[in-house]
Specification:
16 helices; globular; alpha/beta; six-stranded parallel beta sheet; about 400 residues; eight-stranded mixed beta sheet; 14 strands
């Protein structure tokens, strides 16, 4: 079976055109890892770029890579029409059985829906809900992304939903949905788990510094816990654009926290270093106002971290049935702070079996098998419909 997978090369997104190898988001990287081990699949990864970059012809034995140059005018300002047309032209050469658009953040889902071939779309982040949560202004990137998302979802053959929450958000756009979680990177399962013991507990919060990730609010909880006499270090890991008002507010609060020794900011890092960071920590706190899935939650649990979070989006799916994971209603941040304090006072224990639960649910091979089952079922269904018309 030949599948064209439309995704974003993060070198384009991050404007790091000089990098030698293509880079994809963690969820896409993980599912590609699983699919690349299937000898019954031929995968063609397609991405667009505004500037020429190095593009290896193949990523693995069964995976080809196509990097398409699209002038700047063909991107968001024209509803990604340049990307849509370039991808359609390449698909006519590839002749795939199925086109899979990875994410509604940019051109991928839209290009799949308008590809002219049987197609499906994966939701990584619910752009409509994100736009609502931050009150995106008319004409902004998030406002545009939300509308292009709705357009694509109505026209695709079906939607891979990474949580029950995402499925609820999608069903009024498209009746055909499948529940397929994001995969974790293989290294989260292959690197041996450490024997962790420390005198000063480390708490992690991971994600780009943005209003819907609520780092400023979590810093306020850290300050409250510190003033109560609790000893810990709360590390906030993620990119922060100091040109935005929220990031400036975050760094103002962080200056006080770092001076008092109870929190610090850590820049984003690659998976190898991130795993080491997880393994040096004791707990993960994740409390966004919008979250389609919650990949960092699954990552933290895969390294046997204690988890505190809010019942937001896909987070309850991940935490369900997991040893010692604690969830709170979105308006119960005070209760979450009290729970963290009790955990600190109780010797800050880590779970022992969370990692094995994550392996059974989110290993790349498990998620790749689910993809293949859906691909085959969808192809049969499309052919049946075609034979009746």
């Amino acid at each position: 079976m030949r599948v064209a997978l439309l995704t974003t090369d993060n070198r384009e997104h991050e404007r790091t055109y000089e990098k030698a190898s293509p880079r994809f988001g963690p969820a896409v990287e993980s599912v590609l890892d699983g699919l690349s081990r299937r000898n019954d699949l031929e995968i063609h990864v397609i991405a667009c770029t505004q500037r020429p970059m190095n593009a290896p012809g193949k990523l693995s034995e069964n995976t080809w890579f196509h990097l398409l140059d699209v002038p700047k005018i063909g991107w968001l300002r024209t509803g990604y029409q340049g990307c849509v047309r370039a991808i359609r032209k390449r698909l006519q050469i590839i002749q795939p059985d199925l086109v899979h658009g990875q994410g509604t953040e940019r051109e991928c889902a839209l290009s799949a829906a308008l590809s002219g071939y049987p197609n499906v779309v994966t939701i990584h982040g619910n752009m409509g809900q994100v736009a609502k949560s931050v009150h995106a202004r008319i004409g902004s990137y998030l406002w545009c992304a939300a509308r292009l998302e709705a357009f694509a979802l109505r026209r695709t053959g079906g939607v891979f939903c990474n949580s029950a929450y995402t499925e609820r958000m999608v069903q009024h756009f498209n009746e055909q949905t499948w529940r397929v979680a994001n995969a974790l990177r293989r290294s989260f399962f292959d690197v041996p788990l450490p024997d962790r013991s420390s005198s000063k507990p480390i708490i992690l919060t991971i994600g780009v510094v943005a209003p819907f990730k609520r780092q400023v609010e979590l810093l306020a909880i850290a300050d409250q816990l510190h003033q109560r006499g609790n000893h810990f270090e709360w590390q906030f890991v993620g990119a922060a654009n100091e040109r935005t008002p929220y990031a400036r507010q975050f760094f103002t609060a962080m200056e006080k926290a770092e001076g008092s020794g109870y929190a610090r900011h850590v820049p984003p890092m690659h998976s190898e270093d991130l795993i080491k960071l997880y393994d040096q920590a004791d707990a993960l706190v994740h409390a966004p106002s919008e979250e389609a899935f919650g990949l960092v939650v699954a990552e933290g649990l895969a390294r046997n971290l204690k988890f505190f979070g809010l019942e937001i989006g896909g987070v309850p799916d991940i935490a369900a049935g997991v040893e010692t994971a604690e969830l709170f209603a979105p308006d119960q941040t005070d209760a979450m702070a009290d729970a963290i304090e009790r955990w600190l006072g109780g010797g800050f224990p880590r779970p022992k079996n969370a990692a094995s639960e994550m392996r059974s649910r989110y290993h790349p091979d498990v998620i790749a098998q689910r993809h293949l089952e859906i691909y085959r079922d969808h192809r049969v269904r499309v052919r049946a419909v075609a034979s009746q018309t």
